[in-house]
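User: Teach me something about this protein's shape.
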Amino acid sequence: MLMEQKSLTSNQEHIIDVLIKKNPNLDRGILSKAVAFIAEAHEGQYRKSGMPYTEHPYEVAKILADLKQDQSTVLAGLLHDVVEDTDHSLEEIAEKFGKDTAFMVDAVTKITAAQESSKTAQKAETYRKLIVAMAKDPRVIMIKIADRIHNMRTMRYMKPEKRQIIAQETLDIYIPLTHRFGLYKLKNELEDLSFKYVNPDEYQKLVDLLIENKESREKYIQSVIGPLQIKMALEDFDCTIQGRTKNIYSIYNKMLSRGCQFEDIFDIFAIRIIVDTIPECYLALGYVHNLWTPLQSRFKDYIATPKPNLYQSIHTTVIGPENKMVEVQIRTKDMDLTAEKGFAAHWAYKMETQHEGEELEWLNHMVKLQSEISDSKEYLDFLKVDLKPTGMTVFTPKGTSIELPQGSIVLDFAFAVHTELGLHCIGAKINDEVVNLDTVVEHGATIQVLKSPNQEPSPEWLDMVKTVKAKQELRRWMKSSIMKQALDLGKEIWDRELRLQKIEKVKRPSEESICKYFGTPTIDDFYERLGQGELPLADIQRFLNGGETTTKESNSLRFFPMFNKDAKVERRDEMPLQIGQETSLVVHFAKCCSPVPGDPIVGVLRPKIGIEVHNTDCPQLKNLPMEQRIAVEWSEDIKHSFEAHLTIETENRKNITFDVLQELKRANVFLERVTSASKHYSGRIRLVFKAFRKEQVDSIITAIKNINGVKQVVKS
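Assistant: First, the predicted structure itself:
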């Protein structure tokens, strides 16, 4: 335990003076107590730089005070490493500095390696703990960001490999968080510091170019500001005009996204006009557009539609002096404060109000989603995706705004509105136009989702959607559906085996004996495992035969009708399962032979898959166990199409691919993909298209064979 508080050193008194100067609402007495506490707690500890460890909590507290954070948050910044790096406990902090402060200190304390089995698990659990704490009290993230800012500022003292790991983590997790909370000033600094260590060569190259071009750049900025100041003076319009160069990392990203060099980037700086009121923002916009021609495609009004992190401003790009593009941002003083300090600009006075609003709804959304992801690596991947800036806002017909990442489709929007809407989505109406469910949505669009109770998700949806919520809901639905479909299929296979063995109803095994023999807790678990191909048919037959092993010959005879010319007659004894009537998650059509209705087929029970359907002449069948084959046949009322694969060997003739595609067009089939390659005097074309019947595929094969230069056509 600490002894009586010692008198503070002149340096410690100076720290307190700085904190109070940055935020006059802080209490000197409590700060003095905390500074004395950490000085003794961290005594004898030093940073990699050789400085006393207390330098770090002092700097973290300064950043928080500068952001006008309240007393508890600044105290937590001072004390944030005490529990992790000293013998003092959370209970002691709660007793001395309050429960609020203790909660935040606990939230930013890492899960120790001893609590988790691996570094990945340790990191994942630390982030889980942080996200949950942020949802309860968003001030937590301010401490974590301030901590990361100072660590990044002093990272030159660490080993190069460690620097790169920390910098990449900052890019993946902390920078998206600063964006989410509207902390743009800190975001820019973190981006440049991270870029410096992740890609030092490119960073230094850009620094050199910016220094080299500094004089001409500042001269050009003045050539923009000068006419603006004259215009505003002539209009008797009171405002502040600033010019700034954009941060290094954002310039680098512009070069990457546009595929150009530094010299080709004209908008590496922005002009900012700051006024008193919202009407003055629009008045200033008019004056800017009077001076220079605006680019309509690059106009954004974030005052009318603020970003979820409260950011408000008008962005317009004009063709300025020397025909160069210039970005102009127009905002009020209050908006400028929010742009600098994000939510933090409001928390000192409106903490409770902000927490209850929609601005932090994404945090509750993340807490809910993370509880459904048990795998540590998958969770870390989820964080990297879901924390990224959302990119755009779209609206429901009632005007509710929905955040979505760039590239999102109608289906992502449907799931964002409601899970049931996503599961039954068939498309949408955008601007009175009906569009497909895979249509990419645009910023500002109003979307009305169209649904049908008969619609169900297909596995392809997982590859189509962009948002984590949509993927999670689809995985959950598919897992539940697979279990139900596997249970139904397992019952069907079991009943079929009973009938094949001609076992009378009164002599059938009891559920208890089945569960005991196969080691399943319930009869439904037995059916599910059977339907998912996890129980060998040989074991089922052995059980029904009272433990006797079925011979290889008898197994072969069971499947002989599948290859027999007279199979039509004998299949009644095989009692084949009907397939193809509807999409199933436990019946799959083999990619190696791509059967379509009309092809003679056989099923193979595959573990974790269910039934895999092959053509009876598929070469891959010889690699699959005979005892796992099961009689199947096409249902008579199939209404949907199947993938057909063709490989075409050709001469290396000009336009031969075009001729092949013309035959598909004549056959009126949907082409999914085509690839072609040629070498010397020969070529190969691969087609994947949708077909309803074997006869349709055979007709296409015949037509392609008749094309001049085609040597061979085979199903593949």
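Now, about its shape. The two ends are 77 Å apart (CA to CA). The CA atoms of residues 63 and 146 lie 6 Å apart. If you'd like, I can walk through any region in more detail.
User: That's plenty for now, thanks!
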